[in-house]
Write a structure and sequence with these properties.
Elements lengths: L6 H5 L14 H4 L8 H19 L6 E9 L4 E3 L4 E5 L5 E11 L7 E3 L4 E3 L21 E5 L11 E9 L3 E3 L4 E7 L5 E4 L3 E5 L12 E6 L6 E2 L9 E5 L2 E4 L7 E7 L7 E4 L10 E5 L5 E12 L5 E8 L12 E3 L3 H26 L8 H16 L8
Antiparallel strand pairs: 1-8, 2-3, 3-7, 4-5, 4-8, 6-7, 9-22, 10-11, 10-17, 11-16, 12-13, 14-17, 15-16, 18-21, 19-20, 19-22, 20-21
Helix pairs in contact: 3-4, 4-5
Length: 392
């Protein structure tokens, strides 16, 4: 799955797959990322994502969680004669998927709890479909359960399990179509093997995906495309059968992989993880100069039960205004978490520089300049993530 920030966020320009030509963000982060390879930047973004999750002691991206507790006890007890309080270890609480209860000792004999009887004690403070959701407070971490959790079995004699959705939706945009194209030097026409769908089963932006999933999108006029024989910024100007007319002529002849993005006005986007996007969340496509916010409406994919997870397609309730190549993030994550992740990337770059400084220092001594900057940045990251730490 895509990290919380991408090289596009660090470089401040749209990313054509396999090449980055935009300016670096040295003025903001104090690090010249343009001297770091694209592959290494992706690795640093993934390490930074893991660092942020580790400090928060939980996965901050949208996630499906199953949790069991025994009661009555500290985290599972009654607040009156018929309502139980289940204190979760994760937050924010987005939605309940299912619930069950049992009495006595293992093996548990489970009985279902209707989803309508399980509600968040404090719903999220911000509407999923509003601008404020992207800076939302995580809220409280407890469910109230009506009528199904009597504690007649004695101390710790009742077992309750709840599956719920938590975190902030984050996903990576996959191509609308990946196909093979036959190019002719100086021609703006290319013949492709297919104009519809993407079969996930190969590596893209460094991440393996499930094989055999056909994602239902097609090549349309206005879609950006990239291939080894095409200049950056090429788009589709006409589609006739398996023949595409492009806005630029080919720079060479031969067969190459053609990666197709999304034209302005798109309402379907293929993604690497659809978890929690079906809740109608407002998110932002972080695509450099083409950054924009759009609302999700529904999802579809190979794994839909007990809850949609994994690669799939998001249907947008508001069409895109701008064109997008794949490899960028579509995220509803609060800006402070994204900034903490960027700083965690910066720490890795500073550590590389500090190592070089120390190696060149006078024998028997080391420079503290790099170390102090790293310490200050690490403290800032930890402070930013305090409200998002795991509860238990």
């Amino acid at each position: 799955m895509i990290p919380y920030v991408t090289p596009t966020d660090l470089l401040g320009d749209p990313v054509a797959p396999a090449s980055i030509t935009g300016p670096n963000d040295q003025a903001t982060l104090g690090v010249n990322f343009s001297v770091i390879s694209v592959a290494r930047l992706w690795e640093m973004c993934r390490i930074a994502t893991s660092t942020v999750d580790t400090i928060a002691a939980q996965t901050l991206r949208g996630d499906s969680v199953y949790e069991e507790l025994s009661g009555p006890g500290h985290r599972l007890g009654l607040i009156n004669g018929s309502v139980a309080r289940f204190v979760t270890s994760r937050k924010p609480l987005l939605s309940v998927v299912s619930g069950q209860y049992a009495f006595g000792s293992p093996p548990w004999q489970w009985n279902p709890i209707p989803v309508a009887n399980i509600v968040p004690e404090q719903p999220p403070f911000s509407d999923f479909a509003s601008a404020s959701w992207e800076s939302a407070d995580p809220g409280q971490a407890a469910f109230l359960i009506g009528q199904y959790c009597g504690f007649g079995a004695g101390h710790q004699g009742t077992r309750v399990g709840i599956r719920y959705l938590t975190g902030w939706p984050v996903t990576g945009i996959l191509p609308s179509v990946v196909t093979t194209g036959t190019f002719t030097l100086s021609s703006d026409v290319v013949t492709v093997a297919a104009t519809t769908g993407i079969a996930i089963g190969s590596n893209y932006i460094g991440a393996p995906y499930l094989a055999g999933i056909a994602l239902p999108t097609s090549i349309v006029v206005g879609a950006p495309v990239t291939a080894s024989f095409l200049p950056v910024g090429t788009t589709v100007t006409a589609v006739s059968g398996n023949s595409l007319t492009l806005s630029n002529v080919a720079t060479g002849s031969g067969t190459a992989t053609l990666i197709v993005g999304y034209a302005p006005g798109s309402t379907l986007i293929n993604v690497d993880d659809m978890t929690t996007w079906g809740l109608g969340v407002r998110g932002t496509i972080y695509d450099g100069l083409n950054t924009e916010s759009v609302n999700s409406a529904s999802v579809s994919g190979a794994i839909m039960t007990p809850t949609p997870v994994g690669p799939g397609t998001i249907t947008l309730s508001t069409a895109t205004l701008l064109a997008h190549l794949p490899g960028v993030a579509y995220s509803a994550m609060p800006g402070v978490i994204r900034w903490a992740t960027m700083l965690a990337v910066k720490v890795q770059a500073l550590e590389r520089g500090a190592t070089a400084i120390t190696a060149q220092a006078t024998p028997g001594r080391s420079s503290s300049a790099g170390g102090s900057a790293i310490d200050r940045t690490n403290k800032a990251i930890a402070t930013m993530l305090l409200p998002y730490r795991r509860v238990f």
